[in-house]
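We modelled the chain as a single entity of 353 amino acids. Its sequence is:
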Amino acid sequence: MSAPVLPDYTALALDIKRWARELGFAQAGISGVALEPDERHLQRWLEDGYHGDMEYMARHGTKRSRPDELEPGTQRVISVRMDYMPPGTQHAWEVIGDTDAGYVARYALGRDYHKLMRNRLQKLAERIRGAIGDFGYRAYVDSAPVLEKALARNAGLGWVGKHTVLINRHAGSYFFLGELYTNLPLPVDEAASAHCGTCRKCIDICPTQAIVAPYRLDARRCISYLTIELKGSIPHDLRAPMGNRIFGCDDCQLICPWNKFAQDATEPDFAPRHSLDGAKLVELFAWSEEQFLQRTEGMAIRRTGYEGWLRNIAVALGNAPSSEEVRTALQAHADHPSAIVREHVAWALARHG
């Protein structure tokens, strides 16, 4: 009886990258599973307490940095990236400079990427199965403890910048990442080299000085953490620096010289919904909970919850120029059932005398 014919893994790797592009991914790469230096970096970060209330970052032990522990049998990780900046979006700096508008991180303006990318990864796995038969795999898009940036770097998709965001020299940093863990012994790509040089623009521009050193982010000070992950009160000393940023923050990416090469999204679902690329704070603050849930259905903004949404906008209104319209909007929520909302509204009203 003849032995089974093994796949040509070199040819298969090329096919996988081509199929990934056909499925809408901008790029795909393949890495091994060794992440020892990144595991040490993560452990130091956790020991410093930089993860704040994100206890899930420490919950899974070494599964985050050892793919074969998370998914036994994993030999390779196929990393993919997908550009998310929608064409025609109102310019970010213009919105940040408009103190009457609310700034939403550009990745969150349209459809939530998690399910979309996971479905595409599943289709990629099905194409691989169609070519070689059954194989072991698991698709992840922020759905499990995965060191996605380290894996993507090792797969050649970019390097981790001083702001801890992945940068691609041909496409900047406005892209999502996803992974396909697999037991296939595919040839690995060359890891990307770093090209930040002496630049520290991202460190200097951070409104809350959350980048405490190159490659060291104190999430407790990061506006993305404060507006999305944090469920309690925003520290008083960080409220004014938040400006009008109500969901996430892009400053460290907006200032990055490499983003002159950023590519527009090709996925129509990432286009802004409800004019959130520059909507007025007073209008957003007037949304009822029902309107919030209806208008953010299928969007990443849902993650902050209605209470967090009002909290964040109250801070932004506190930072806006004083006007009767702003004071009236704040007073409408002065007796809100949520103590968190009432506290931040009171702070904002005090700012307006």
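As a brief sanity check on the tokenised model: The CA atoms of residues 142 and 265 lie 20 Å apart. The first helix runs from residue 9 to 22.
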